[in-house]
Write a structure and sequence with these properties.
This protein has two domains: 228 residues, Aspartate Aminotransferase, domain 2 (3-Layer(aba) Sandwich); 120 residues, Aspartate Aminotransferase, domain 1 (Alpha-Beta Complex), CATH 3.90.1150. The chain has twelve helices and 13 strands. With 371 residues, it is an alpha/beta fold.
Length: 371
């Protein structure tokens, strides 16, 4: 097959988004306003929660969630050993202590058994991540947290549209969040959202995202807050993107199924699977491979873009080393071998075939023979 370039990600955007932004500009209302409210209402209905609060990023939503729960210095918050850095940083923003739990070796979400082992009298919250769009075992995790009356902040930054037992992710936590970053399944360019069924939590979230100001009493600030507001410009893009959500998710499932069919008999890689009681959103199509960094470099030279989320356990980051309690063997193995293949709406079968061909070539060059 002739050489080509296949990126890991390519944004799907067209004239509808352009027109939506233009209409918003012409309306004269660019900041937080009617577009944001409409966006919140539509997403809340889709997820199946009472309240959705739009924010400037997923990180902002996560910070708000921990503030709502009054996480403070001296508290411990259990996080996955393989997190995005924002998940852990938001714990530090509260002055609290992150505690790293090991992950599931098959689907890479937080391991409920590891969580249970780490609970102490100081544990106030768990932040599970459903890695790449595959749900954690919510029944098992909630059995653990309910026994100890520990809150859950669900980090659904990468799992929008996924399901567990026919219930949408981003609805399982006492508070849940997602991200609409430009590389996500659908985007507001930058943005996030917080979800809850608790009216008081929602009220407080709206105050914290706007400098802690009481909506009913201008310039009165009962809480420490930030400027975490989403703009109508961002929401107008999000509304158009969200109108395609079923098509976007269906396409990702189709792409994932094709990869799995073609890759399952290739020696030297571990192909992702999907539990029977889950519906994967396939934000990432992750494989495990030995000599990952060399493998990645070979693919890049052959024109295949990839993504490594994430190459380091959280506790190996310079500012987080002091929080390491023990080696997390599954986390470290996965961090050293995981790599995400190209996955985006406009990815075509002939492009996937090229990716698969180059994977085989790279494995052969590394000394791994196919079956």
């Amino acid at each position: 097959m002739n050489n080509m370039k296949v990126p890991w990600f390519e944004l799907y955007i067209d004239e509808k988004e352009t027109q939506a932004v233009l209409n918003t500009v012409k309306s004269g209302w660019l900041g937080i306003g009617p577009q944001v409210k409409d966006f919140e209402n539509k997403i809340a209905e889709y997820i199946g929660v009472k309240y959705a609060v739009a924010t400037s990023s997923g990180t902002a939503a996560l910070d708000i969630a921990l503030k709502i729960l009054d996480i403070k210095p001296g508290d411990e918050v259990i996080v996955p050993g393989l997190p995005y850095i924002a998940t852990v940083n938001c714990v530090l923003f509260q002055g609290a202590t992150p505690v790293f739990a090991d992950i599931d070796p098959i689907h890479f979400g937080v391991d409920p058994d590891s969580v249970e082992e780490l609970i102490t009298k100081k544990t106030k919250c768990v932040i599970p991540i459903s890695y790449g769009g595959h749900s954690v075992d919510w029944d098992k995790l909630k059995d653990v947290t309910n026994k100890k009356n520990i809150k859950i902040v669900e980090d659904g930054a990468a799992s929008f549209g996924a399901e567990y037992k026919n219930k949408k992710l981003c609805s399982f936590g006492d508070l849940s969040i997602t991200s609409f970053h430009v590389a996500k399944t659908f985007t507001t360019v930058e943005g996030g959202m917080l979800f809850t069924n608790n009216e008081e939590y929602a009220k407080k979230a709206r105050m914290i995202r706007s400098h802690g100001e009481d909506k009913e009493k201008k310039y009165w600030h009962p809480y420490l807050g930030h400027n975490y507001r989403m703009t109508d410009l961002n929401a107008s893009i999000g509304l158009v993107q969200f109108s395609r959500i079923n098509d976007l998710l269906s396409k990702r499932r189709e792409l994932a199924a094709y990869y799995s069919k073609k890759l399952q008999n290739i020696r030297g890689i571990q192909v992702p699977t999907e539990n029977i009681n889950t519906k994967h959103s396939w934000f990432i199509y992750p494989i495990l491979v030995e000599n990952r960094d060399k493998f990645k470099n070979l693919l890049e030279k052959k024109g295949v873009g990839t993504n490594v989320s994430w190459p380091y356990p959280g506790y190996q980051q310079p500012h987080l080393k002091k929080f390491k309690k023990k080696d997390l063997h599954v986390t470290e193995k996965v961090a050293s071998s995981i790599i995400g293949l190209p996955m985006f709406y406009k990815l075509k079968v002939h492009m996937q075939d090229y990716v698969i061909e180059k994977i085989q070539e790279a494995l052969e060059e590394l000394g791994t023979n196919t079956k």
